[in-house]
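During the no-cost extension, the postdoctoral fellow (Dr. R.K.) reprocessed legacy sequence entries with the updated structure-token encoder. One reprocessed record is reproduced below for audit purposes.
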Amino acid sequence: MTLVELLVVVAIVAALVALLLPAAQAAREASRRTTCVNNLRHIGCALHGHLLAKRKFPVGCTEWKAGVGGPNRCLAWSAFILPWLEEQATADRLDLSKPFDDPANAGVAATGLRVFICPSADRIGMTVGGLGRCDYGGLAGERIVSPNSPMKGVLIHEQRFADWEITDGLSKTIFVGECGSGVWSDGQWINGRNLFDQAYAINFPTWEDEIRSRHAGSGAHALAGDGAVHFLAESTDALVLAAACTRARGEGRQAPW
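Re-encoded structure tokens follow.
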């Protein structure tokens, strides 16, 4: 083989790699996105399992606290649905009478659970701050059109709701949003601060935790109360998004999907 022929072969191989690499990356991202959707579907089924067993959806956070230490438990909605995520053994190890950061819960709270992890998220590893990571946050309401006081969402502090209390409609109300590019260290499945109220557009670059992702396609996933998972575009109308983050405001708007 002459030098010219060798250079031609090398050029052809380089061209093929350049053509195939984007396709391979796109296939990997499609697989990661499918995993994320399946995670949210499992979470939706678990929320309804809790509803069937307890007649109400779980509390968003019980005994909220801003920091660590102290008597408040600050336990998250995601900890209360473990039995319906096929994590009964993990649930049995939890002492729900004690705070999320109590030494008695340290071992089990450090368990990373794949159902709470989006493979496209910024965070690396199975834990955040030594506790099991969660890339999905409960929607406590919205601050797009008005202050979130009292909280207007479904997964809120110290209160549980039955399905009939979600008068805006389960299919039109967001229960859980993807937060795969969060900057806070409280994205932990046991930590009751794993909640947020939407204040900006989808994927808006803010220091607050919001519905946002690192998926291709300019949007992020959200779980509705009927168990359906939707991809919310960054271009979603702000008023429609705000209406979907509330449980009983009667806005009369269409869902953003």
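The radius of gyration is 21 Å. The chain has a mean pLDDT of 92. The remaining legacy entries will be reprocessed before the final report is submitted.
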